[in-house]
Structures are given as structure tokens and as C-alpha cells.
Specification:
With about 325 residues, the protein is α/β, with parallel strands linked by helices. It is about 15% helix and about 30% strand. The protein is built from 3 helices and 29 strands. The strands form 5 sheets. Strands 1-2-5-8-11-14-17-20-23 form a 9-stranded parallel beta sheet, covered by helices on one side. An 8-stranded parallel beta sheet has the order 3-6-9-12-15-18-21-24, with no helix packed on it. It has an 8-stranded parallel beta sheet with strand order 4-7-10-13-16-19-22-25, covered by helices on one side. Pfam families: Beta_helix.
Length: about 325
């Protein structure tokens, strides 16, 4: 019996030692942060490291400087319709220009003194809006994907990249430069709209680039520059109209309705997304261009602990 007990003790001690060794060797678990209006958004984002996730919740956030991202965390908003980062013409936007593999979703950035959102290689930018910025709306290095993004009323280009990027259902309107500009091309643009920009609509200089099922119209210079429009691409008035969340909904009779490359379901733009002012989901062949959140964004009520914190700080 004593021998058996000693063996059990030896096994338990060995198990504890092994567990301790694995804990030391294992990487630190990724952290999750929640940012609410009034929190120090710059410090929280800049303090995050690779693998962390930062949830930026509904409301307007006012940084006082450029937000410089380190590592490659993920920044996720509640919805671009209600999660707004307003730089008030002070900071230079969200700068992740030195970070590969960065992800940002569901955010609106406005009034940056420079570019709006800057990303490096192999990044994902999804369901984001940038407007009123002093540089490009979106500035990208290469081999990144931008999906369902809207860029308008910026001083320079709506979307600007070095090469090799993919744009899906993006809209660039009324920017001071081109709608979409690529220095070396090799881009793929699908279901995109470029309207009313001061330079070209699509300025993509490379024969390996593809502009498919897209629309360029009313841009001051050339509609398609550097690369010819491909399958399904047109140059006609998209018939934008003002709706509950912005100015870039589509009339039912728009030539961009049901003229995209694939079904809205396959592209992840069916349930919850629309180009229709009444909020009807885009469930058939996808419409060209940016899709608004049909429900205006997710429920983003504050947790009790945060409410109590705000009440206490105001006493």
C-alpha cells in the first residue's frame, strides 16, 4: 500500500512539473480589450500586441493624435453606422502601415488631418467608412483585401495602394484625387463604384489588373485609366440616393442593382446588408458598391459596470 501511495505521489509531482514547464513554454494568451467613448482609445490600441482583439463600441471616440498600431491585433467596431473615430483634424488617422496581417472591421474614421486608415501587407479591411480626411481615405501597401468599404469627400484618393490588392464591393465618391489608384497595379476590383472623383475613376496601371462588374461615372478625367474595364463593367450614372445612414444608397432602377459578380449570400452581403433605402436585404445577385447595415448596427448598450463608472466620474 505504501509503495502504491508513493507511486501516486511521484506521478502527481511529475504531472505538476510537466504542467509548469508547458505553461512556461506556451505563448501568452491573446488579450481582449473593450473600448467605450471616453476611454483612452489611443493608449488601448497602441498597447495591444499581436493576436489581441480590441472591440471599439458604439459612440464617437475623439483621439488627440495619430493612433499608431503595433503588432497586428484586430480592431472590431460594432457597426460603421454607430462606431465613429473622429480625429477632429488633429491626428493622422489609424496608422498600421508597418504591420502585416492587421485586421480592422466595422469602423468609421473621419476628419483625419492625413490619411484615414493606413495598412501594410496581407491585411483585411472590412465594412469600414472613411470620409473628410486630409489625405487618402484608405492607403494600403500590397496584397491586402478591402471588402465593403466606402471612401468619400477626402482630399486625395479614395483608395490608394502599391500593388496586388483586392477590392470587393467598395465605393469611392467625390474624392479630390482618383477613386481607386494603384501605383503598380496587379489589383482585382470586383463590384466597385467610382463616381464624382476629381481625377480618374479607376487609375490602375497594369495589364494584369482586372476591373470586373464595376461602374465608373462622372469622374473629372478618365473613367478607366491604365487598365480596360473587364467583364460586367459599365460607365453610367449609378443613381445614388440619400437614405437613413448616408448618401450612397441605390434607386431600384439603378444600373448597379443586381449587376454584381455573384450572389449576395456567397459574398456575405445578404442578411444585414443593403443598398436599398427601405433596408431590404440584398439577397439575389449582389448589387455593385458599398452596402449599408440594414439594421443600423448591432445593439451596443453599455454594461452595468461601465454605466456605474460613468455615473461615479460625474458625481
Amino acid at each position: 500500500m505504501v509503495i502504491i501511495m508513493n507511486k501516486i505521489k511521484s506521478i502527481l509531482i511529475m504531472s505538476i512539473l510537466l504542467a509548469s514547464i508547458f505553461a512556461l513554454l506556451s505563448p501568452v494568451s491573446a488579450a481582449t480589450y473593450h473600448v467605450y467613448p471616453g476611454d483612452d482609445i489611443e493608449a488601448i490600441i497602441e498597447g495591444a500586441t499581436s493576436g489581441d482583439t480590441i472591440y471599439v463600441h458604439a459612440g464617437t471616440h475623439y483621439p488627440t493624435r495619430t493612433i499608431t498600431v503595433s503588432g497586428h491585433p484586430s480592431i472590431i467596431g460594432d457597426s460603421p453606422s454607430n462606431t465613429i473615430i473622429d480625429f477632429n483634424n488633429i491626428g493622422g488617422g489609424i496608422d498600421a502601415s508597418s504591420q502585416d496581417g492587421f485586421t480592422i472591421k466595422n469602423i468609421t474614421v473621419k476628419n483625419s488631418a492625413g490619411h484615414g486608415i493606413l495598412v501594410d501587407d496581407e491585411c483585411l479591411v472590412e465594412n469600414c467608412i472613411v470620409y473628410g480626411c486630409g489625405g487618402d481615405g484608405f492607403r494600403v501597401d500590397e496584397e491586402s483585401t478591402l471588402k465593403n468599404c466606402l471612401s468619400y469627400d477626402n482630399v486625395d484618393d479614395g483608395f490608394n495602394d502599391e500593388e496586388g490588392c483586392t477590392y470587393i464591393n467598395c465605393t469611392a465618391a467625390n474624392n479630390g484625387g482618383s477613386g481607386f489608384y494603384s501605383e503598380d497595379g496587379e489589383d482585382t476590383l470586383v463590384n466597385c463604384i467610382a463616381v464624382g472623383n476629381k481625377d480618374d475613376g479607376f487609375d490602375i496601371w497594369n495589364s494584369d489588373s482586372e476591373i470586373l462588374y464595376s461602374n465608373a461615372w462622372g469622374n473629372s478625367d478618365v473613367q478607366y485609366q491604365g487598365t480596360s474595364p473587364g467583364t460586367g463593367s459599365i460607365s453610367v450614372d449609378p443613381f445614388f440616393m440619400k437614405g437613413p445612414l448616408g448618401d450612397f444608397y441605390l434607386f431600384k432602377s439603378s444600373p448597379c442593382v443586381n449587376k454584381g459578380s455573384d450572389s449576395a449570400i456567397n459574398l456575405g452581403l445578404s442578411t444585414g446588408f443593403t443598398t436599398n433605402v427601405k433596408g431590404a436585404f440584398d439577397t439575389g445577385t449582389v448589387d455593385m458598391g458599398y452596402h449599408y447595415s440594414s439594421n443600423g448596427g448591432s445593439d451596443s448598450s453599455l454594461p452595468i459596470a461601465k454605466i456605474l463608472e460613468i455615473i461615479k466620474s460625474n458625481q
